[in-house]
């Protein structure tokens, strides 16, 4: 009897009835046609667009409806005809494009643009956490929308694909910018970025060891410059050296060593990441005043407050100013300097996301099924779901995971 009981128990343990089927654990795949709107960017010198005509063609071929405001692609050198031929509908007012169920912008919407939003819509845009105010957050909350910050979106590898792509562009661009302003044609000190036989190489100091720093270091080393990298995170410095594949000078942010190198540098790149709203290091005005005349500072993190006391926000039309005869380049949106490349990079990220949203039946379903997308959500159904924003402004927030679980 005992043996028979054991056999029956084994059969029961292996019975599929005891285990939930895969279809019960995940949302059933059901393709849904999406309605996507691409407004014309109104923010100053924002030249990028979220989808290229090729991406629009791919999505419209899948049955999705895409409306684009006239002229939205022009800064990236895409014409309305390019988008029309790809299957998009050209509309001529923001009111029309904001009829879409999903609105894809690059810059955060202005207060005027927020008024076009309506309950139940999904907004995908940048958030610009450093410039965020409680009034702005409340204006979005009142609209009862879903809001996703693409800077916060993570992929299955837990990296932030949009931040990574834009950082690669910024890092590759800074050395081109430095070379431009070191030349005498731009009233620079008249040196080549790099070095030639018999002439000492130019000196490049990079503050930070993230993606911007990695790509800037690659470009500088490729030109033959002497590169020194500073960061307080040893693992970042180690990773940067490994990725570059060369032994280069690295150091923690020891002010005595750093300031001595800054005084000798031809190019200084500020690429530190603010932690808890504060820069790991702020270079005092007096130190900048002791740098070599004609040297250039490129403060990539100016949108987070910058890491030089002398930094002031500049623009693509007036990118530099001089202080203590040191050239300062403090444009916050370097990737917008090459909008066609940046738009293609963004499009390569957003197109698969929209395909996945469609596959699972909508925004709510894809958030329920794919946890890595939830990191980008800061408003869900009109409720704040981002703890950092809540902490910054003393606001209440709800756990997104719980809201989705209850809904489903």
TrEMBL record:
Give a Pfam family name. AlaDh_PNT_C
Question: Gene3D superfamilies recorded for this chain?
Answer: NAD(P)-binding Rossmann-like Domain
Question: What InterPro entries does the database record attribute to this sequence?
Answer: Ala_DH (IPR008141), Ala_DH/PNT_CS2 (IPR008143), AlaDH/PNT_N (IPR007886), AlaDH/PNT_NAD(H)-bd (IPR007698), NAD(P)-bd_dom_sf (IPR036291)
Q: What is the scientific name of the source organism?
A: Pontibacter aquaedesilientis
Q: List the SUPFAM superfamilies hit by this protein, alphabetically.
A: Formate/glycerate dehydrogenase catalytic domain-like, NAD(P)-binding Rossmann-fold domains
Which family does the record assign?
Answer: Belongs to the AlaDH/PNT family.
Which residues are in the Alanine dehydrogenase/pyridine nucleotide transhydrogenase N-terminal domain?
Answer: 37-170
Q: What is this protein called?
A: alanine dehydrogenase
Quote the EC number: 1.4.1.1
Q: Which domain of life is it from?
A: Bacteria
Q: Which UniProt keywords apply?
A: NAD, Oxidoreductase
Report the residue ranges that make up the Alanine dehydrogenase/pyridine nucleotide transhydrogenase NAD(H)-binding domain in this protein: 182-330
